[in-house]
Amino acid sequence: MEQTTLPEVWLRGALPDIPPVLQPVAHALLQAREEVNALMSDFPDVLLWNRPAGVASVGFHLQHLTGVLDRLFTYARGKSLTTDQLARLSEEGHPKGNTLTVDVLVNRFNRQIDTALNQLRTTDESTLTEPRGVGRAQLPSTVLGLLFHAAEHTQRHVGQLLVTARVLRGY
Length: 171
What we know:
With 171 residues, the protein is mainly alpha-helical. It contains 5 helices and 2 strands. The chain has a single domain, classed as dinb family like domain (Four Helix Bundle (Hemerythrin (Met), subunit A)). The chain has helices at 23-40, 58-76, 83-91, 102-122, 143-169, and strands spanning 131-134, 139-142. The mean pLDDT is 94. Residues 29-161 form the DinB-like domain.
């Protein structure tokens, strides 16, 4: 029996309750989630922190995907990062004994996607061009700039994760 595959998320139509101008952000995040879940479904924990040719590990990418969404969406709300967020940032790329497994990291990513989608649902379109500062230096951006970059950055790291995972598996 031939397996049918769905078209990419952006080709499945509008998402309910997401403002029209934020549909591309939501589509990109949902596409990333589908790709990460498919790729990591049977990825061995033993390879999680390997760094072939010195590139970032699969574990780093999974941590960073979650963390960057949390941080950029925090800035989009006009908030500063908390002490906990800064601590998690400093931990990206570092295994914590045997507690960080593929399943744990993928579940964290999935929850962060849900949190991001909820924020998109409640984002007032009239705020999208409001200025937002990024980081300690408060570099200039906007609500829309942050949300778009979160989606773009997520897609970029999913691509890097895909390549690293395939190299580690030998295909």
